[in-house]
């Protein structure tokens, strides 16, 4: 027991020892005044089909690339799990809507599973059950005045289309358009807020460039750029179709959601590090946002030039690995988004990749092309339940201001932001995270950024891709061992609900577990309860230490 405690204490010390007095005191902001959001600010909570639905082969649903990956390459998933049942939202959707209502949000962002609607990816087979599932969900939300914000594609491609090469095959463009036309016909009378594709960078680089997300091609430097090229064209075709055939009649809006961490220059006084930060933004966000949101369209200049130069040096001849758009295509893609959807969770420190490939990236690869080395090794930012996610609210401010400047003040909706832990209901770390990130969002709004909404990730604990069920992002806890996948609000659900209801960050609102939560807490599976106890102890020690350290330093 003492051994354990000592270990935890040392761990906390390691995590917290470098807390600056300033940082430590802003991280617990009890003395700051309440802060208010504009009265028309949109509040939402998000989820995605594969992560929550389960029912992987219910009715006539087809196989997705995530079904395929998790069934055939279990070893790639941290806990060898899959989303076959997950939170079972295919059956528990009424309870989901109840939770959305409890949070006082005005919007619920969820995604449609393409293979649930078109099992083989083609329109020769449309699933009546699949169509009905989302129709019911949409009606239930509307019954309570909650705006459905619907993502057409959140990573679960029909496996059959992957066998054709997925997003690397230009055939995906008309196929995605057929699928989009069907869902616009089915739901567009009721859905007024659409996004085409969630996080293109993840779809392309993590799916095709490295062995990370399905389909796990692990083929660096070439197919990710083909994927991006087709994806941008498919997105643009769907937006044009919506504008020409649906928008006037249905009166909705459509956009895209891109994602990035904020690349903080490792040494803010170094021009090279600041350049690396700018280049990282152009490669992560600009790859997809520049063609759509910039004045002249097309890929960012730095991306075009660097990849062309490197392709030549690497012996690819005069054809760049980054495909070229024709002037007509540039024109057709430009302006195809009614708002700028942005997902962001964390920040990294960045510095240039040296001449000798200090980052040791494969050549060629996206990372080598970008020429930036990222790390979180020497930061004093608090951690989370995910190794990649550290808490640095200023990064959110910097990111929003960058987008504001770069793309001439677009309307922005934060479509995902949130933090993970390893379980339990007393998620005060999530409460702190949400308060602090929202405060950073308000700072950006006060400095002119046109941020119109904030959608937190996630409604409930769910299947966290390759992390399986080990990392929890939910405002609601899900008991994955119970047949009905019982959902219980965490502390953060009550705090976020209060923010949405009052349009205000109230730093002092830190409720304790209520009756319902205490009962549910007692029923947590043993290992999660232990995790929770450990985390609680760690946080208490961490807080104690930051207080002591702050006291010593100040
Ligand atoms: C690409 O190569 C050209 C010609 O050598 C050079 O002028 C330019 O600066 C290079 N661009 C980048 C971004 O490396
Ligand atoms: C790169 O490697 C070469 C050969 O090993 C060495 O001579 C050179 O100093 C290195 N350059 C840098 C910037 O580290």
TrEMBL record:
Broadest EC class assigned to this enzyme: hydrolase
Coiled coil (residue ranges): none
Catalysed conversion reaction: beta-D-galactosyl-(1<->1)-sphing-4-enine + H2O = sphing-4-enine + D-galactose; a beta-D-xylosyl-(1<->1')-N-acylsphing-4-enine + cholesterol = cholesteryl 3-beta-D-xyloside + an N-acylsphing-4-enine; beta-D-glucosyl-(1<->1)-N-octadecanoylsphing-4-enine + H2O = N-octadecanoylsphing-4-enine + D-glucose; Hydrolysis of terminal, non-reducing beta-D-glucosyl residues with release of beta-D-glucose
Keyword Hydrolase attached: yes
GO molecular function, one term: beta-glucosidase activity
Catalytic residues, chain numbering: 416 (nucleophile)
SUPFAM superfamilies from the UniProt entry: (Trans)glycosidases (SSF51445)
Cross-referenced Pfam families: Glyco_hydro_1 (PF00232)
Signal peptide boundaries: 1-21
Enzyme Commission number(s) of this protein: 3.2.1.21, 3.2.1.46
Keyword Ribonucleoprotein (UniProt): no
InterPro entries membership: GH, GH_1_N_CS, Glyco_hydro_1, Glyco_hydro_1_AS
Keywords in alphabetical order: Glycosidase, Hydrolase, Signal
Any one GO biological process: carbohydrate catabolic process
Family: Belongs to the glycosyl hydrolase 1 family. Klotho subfamily.
Full protein name: Cytosolic beta-glucosidase
Organism lineage: Eukaryota, Metazoa, Ecdysozoa, Arthropoda, Hexapoda
